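WARN no homologs supplied; continuing
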Amino acid sequence: MVCRRAFIDSGWLYLLSGLGLLAVVVLLPAQDAMEDLRWQEQRLHAGVKREQERVQRYGEFIRAVDLEEPIVVERLVNANLSLGDPNREPVLMRVSPNRGDVFSWIEPEQVHLEQPTRPSTLLRRLLARPGLRPWLLAGSALCIFIGLLPPVWKAEDEQFDDE
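OK structure emitted
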């Protein structure tokens, strides 16, 4: 009676699954943290761009007031003193609560960036649990250890192979 050995050692399956689980347990939280940092970076860049635009608009407004440009002076008089040319008919009426607020002319628009959503997978939910990550690391280390163990052959199998 001749016994054949398996074509693929089952240790490889344990080794590969342990390495895959180890990679996921280590890399998935790092990837999530990196995505959060990228979103924060985009948000900060948008804020810096808005502040630069704001400084530029305030500088233009101060120059226009210093040069006493007629349009700016007229707008300031209309906004703050509620005075204006009685013969002039308004073309557009501004319907907003801050009609007389000078800053509403100058301030740039607010930029709202939505935080990207991550797909809800089983691994993400497992890794989000507080005490489960060390157990997953230990399980992956155990699979790697089992995969690295040498195969065990019975002494009977060696006798049949010699004959």
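The two ends are 10 Å apart (CA to CA).
OK
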